[in-house]
Write a structure and sequence with these properties.
143 residues; Aminopeptidase; single chain
């Protein structure tokens, strides 16, 4: 799997909208919202395997020195720690290119434990908002 920015010219909004656990009727509406947004290409990283989109990560960057990351999804047939790491490394490269040194995400408690092992730290008194500095993927021990 490779991770790259969403490309309006070659990628389908309808396929992109199916990369989530939402019901089909919600995915149809999401495709319309993606198509209407001028920011989709700048704020979406996609995973591609064998020429098909199999994953997505949304970046909410408003020009502050931090970004919010959400809507991370990998098709079940392609879920692995290796592919999750590829998204993380691509995210770091993208945010470094924007001079954004910090990003945050919400996570359920079980996922939060895994993210802590990957260098995330709890914020806001230990709730499920986690943050991570952009440069830590390079220093992460391969497991």
């Amino acid at each position: 799997m490779i991770v790259r920015p969403f490309d309006h010219e070659r990628d389908s909004f309808e396929v992109l909208a199916r990369l989530n656990p939402f019901p089909p009727e919600a995915q149809v509406e999401l495709a319309k919202l993606y198509a209407a947004s001028p920011f989709v290409g700048k704020n979406l990283l996609v995973g591609e395997a064998n020429g098909k989109l199999v994953g997505v990560l949304h970046i909410f960057d408003s020009g502050f020195p931090w970004a919010i990351v959400d809507g991370f999804y990998i098709d079940p047939a392609h879920r692995s720690l290796e592919n999750a790491r590829k998204f993380g490394e691509a995210l770091d490269r993208e945010l470094q290119s924007r001079d954004v040194p910090l990003y945050m995400t919400y996570a359920e408690p079980r996922l939060a434990e895994g993210l802590k092992r990957m260098g995330f730290q709890f914020m806001l008194g230990g709730c499920e908002l986690l943050a991570r500095r952009v440069d830590t993927w390079d220093n992460l021990e391969r497991r």
